[in-house]
Amino acid sequence: MNAEQSLAPAAATSAASRKRRWGPHLWPYLFALPFVLAYAAFQLYPVLYSFVLSLHDWNGISEKTYIGFKNYVQLWTNDPLFIKSLWNTLIMMVMFIPLTLILGLVLAYWTFQLTRGKRLFQTINVLPYITTPVAIGFIFSYLFDWQTGLVNLLLTKFGWLQEGFYWLQDPWGSRAIIALMVIWRNLGYFMIIFMAGMTVIPQDVYEAAKMDGSTGLHTFRKITMPLLRNITVFLVVTSVIGGLQLFDEPKLLYGGWSGSAQVGGPDNTALTVIWKFVDESFISNTRFGYASSIAYSLFVIIVFFSILSYRLTAPKEDKR
Amino acid sequence: MNHLLTKSRTAGALSLLLLSGALAACGGNGNENNGASPSASSPAASSAGASSSAPAASADPTQLSGTVKVWDWDEAFQKGMIAEFNKTYPNIKVEVTVVNPNDYLQKLQSGIASGSDVPDVILGESAYRGKLFDLGVLDNLEGAPYNFDKSSVLDFTVPYISNGKGEVIAVDQAITPAGFAYRRDLAKEYWGTDDPAELEKLISTWDDFVAKGKELKDKSGGKVLMMPGLGDAFIALKGQNFASYVNGTEVDLTAKVKEPLTRLFEMRDAGILGKNELWTPAWSASMAKGEFMFYPMAPWGPKWHISANDPEGKGRWGLVKAPEGGFTRGGTAVGIYKDSKNKEAAWAFVQYAYLSDEGSAYNFKTFGNMTGSKSFYETHKDLIEAPGPYDEFFGGQNLAKYFMEKIVPDMKGEPQSKYDSVVDGVFNALYPLWTKDTSVTADAALQKFISETKNKASDATVK
């Protein structure tokens, strides 16, 4: 630094110094530039623009009208469907997140202990995760169809029900089926992640525990579970974020593949926030500004719940 | 029509909106304009070639050139029609992009908002037609260079191709007056006749319909009912109420659906309707199984609906008009983008494919589509008399003639509104609940219908 300061006034060396100033310094920026530009054009700008949009009334074609925060006021104070959609989403999250976590962990622990057929079992469990959501929508709407569904056929055949139950038109039935779809789809993924965590736990810890007389459930509770804590935090936070964005499953269950799609399920009990967003922008209405305010509100909600879920699950020393 | 929805993931839907904004800012007019248009007009001499009939796209067809972009879901139709069209207009190139009707409006909006790809010829399916008209992206066809004369099409179709201001902004892809398709075998077995004329008398009013339905249910031991579900019956009942129910942002839902709902609930309580939802697999399968007597059907129905779901059913179907009159089912309006660079060429195609006598004749013979143009039915009486492509499937009944003579005469039109799709959406969400919970009364249903519509159309006053 000293050298550079002393050299600076000398005219003869100015070219060299300029070269140095622009040369090596510039490369990192140059290399990062394509990403930064792409990020600015396709991420940052749209994110900012959609906020601007949320302050306007716009149908995508006519002139935009600036209306300040009216969209937000309308959304939070005068749109029962939005509140309901948020409520529905949270209810369904409560239904599927704990269950997927517990089942995923149990399944992972059990698979991890397997000596034969481990690979096969892993593969089978991950298959739903890589199945197209459209196919999952088909499968479940066939399974739970009122008149011809397999589930109702079995239930009536074994005499547990006199007449088929209308699963898809029952407020709790519809939510339960959606939760089931999410669990069925994500279980394999949770299992794989937990198993990855288990591989990292050193064997000597287990051996030491064994020496001290710990077995089975005790080892699982005192060793495996605590050491999987970080994995669990990751899974909880990501599934909270994913859960708040729930859309594919309900949409496809209610005929997303047919011409006369029903929005929101029975009495809107399966309407999720994103579904409401899509409905406002493309199905029932074409209110892009209003839909953007939904997107932004959801963003804030997601941030809030992410922090909350992190605080609740992360180990004490990390909670800062 | 039952189409696969191209799946859009959560993130996809979200980023689409965001992206459309981004692209809008990038501006640009991606509209490639293949020269063309300005020339074309050597007016006055409304020369030979083009037929006497419709307001032709003037001049010598070979003089017109350019590229016309069309978005359509029916590729087979366009392939056939473009080849025909090019026999008369060899220098106009028509490019078709296949777009699923479920995504159509969404794609169009994104295209316009981002200033990118927008077709010259835009289709508005009944599910979103009112919304499309309200966007104000279609050109007024009564003005230049189209000079479309609305008296040249069947009177009842005019409301279906007009916007709120009364301007004609589209033409009909095909007319869609509807009656009931019925199972001849079942009619013969339970009512002793499968003759349409006899059936008309048996179900000339809705009261008769309900009475006959009860009789059918008793005779068949509950195995055969009148219609597959509440959705089917409501299409006919609501469709017969041609009253305009939207005035600006005032939506008088009571005027539109109170009576239809009352009748619908009467039918439900009489047990003459099945428990199927429209377009579900069980509903489709019911056609071949013979569980239900009637299905509401427009001229597109024999191809897309009946023969598609009952491929073995040749000869066992018939067509009869609905009690107390006709109604429309489905229907697609075809308009021209207001900022199209090729308006004349686009109009030449639209005019040829959907209005001209030659195009209409080809359309009718090949696909069974019936044009809205009056002149076709005068110059091509022979075609209407001759067997149509699906007549044999319907036991030799002349379907086109039946539609034209028995159903069209007492048809009226329903003015289009952007709230139509909201109302239909709300009904689709509610009728399964009414099917399931039979304790809901017609009055309670109406109140629910109104409150749900309010929730969805927050800018409207709904009563």
What does this structure look like?
The complex is a heterodimer of chains A (320) and B (463). Chain A is mostly helical and 320 residues long. Chain A is built from 14 helices and 2 strands. In chain A, helix 2 crosses helix 14 and helix 11 (229-244) packs antiparallel against helix 14. The radius of gyration of chain A is 27 Å and the shape is globular. Mean pLDDT of chain A is 87; it is low at 1-8. Chain B is globular. By secondary structure, chain B is α+β, with helices and mostly antiparallel strands. Chain B has 18 helices and 12 strands. In chain B, 43% of the residues lie in helices and 11% in strands. In chain B, the strands form 4 sheets. In chain B, strands 5, 8, 9 and 10 form a 4-stranded antiparallel sheet that branches. In chain B, strands 3-11-4 form a 3-stranded antiparallel sheet, sandwiched between helices. In chain B, strands 6-7-12 form a 3-stranded mixed sheet. In chain B, strand 1 (66-72), helix 2 and strand 2 form a beta-alpha-beta unit. At the A-B interface, helix 2, helix 6, helix 13 and helix 14 of A face helix 1, helix 3, helix 10 and helix 17 of B.
Write the layout of secondary structure elements.
The complex is a heterodimer of chains A (320) and B (463).
Chain A: H1 2-7, H2 14-54, E1 56-57, E2 65-66, H3 70-77, H4 80-113, H5 118-126, H6 133-143, H7 150-157, H8 171-200, H9 203-211, H10 216-227, H11 229-244, H12 248-253, H13 273-283, H14 288-313
Antiparallel strand pairs in A: 1-2
Chain B: H1 10-26, E1 66-72, H2 75-88, E2 92-98, H3 104-114, E3 121-125, H4 129-135, E4 171-172, E5 177-183, H5 184-191, H6 196-202, H7 206-219, H8 230-239, E6 246-247, E7 250-251, H9 253-270, H10 281-289, E8 294-297, H11 301-309, E9 317-320, E10 327-328, E11 332-336, H12 343-355, H13 357-367, H14 374-379, H15 381-385, H16 399-407, H17 420-436, H18 442-456, E12 461-462
Parallel strand pairs in B: 1-2, 7-12
Antiparallel strand pairs in B: 3-11, 4-11, 5-8, 5-9, 5-10, 6-7
Helix pairs in contact in B: 1-3, 2-13, 7-9, 8-9, 9-18, 12-13, 17-18
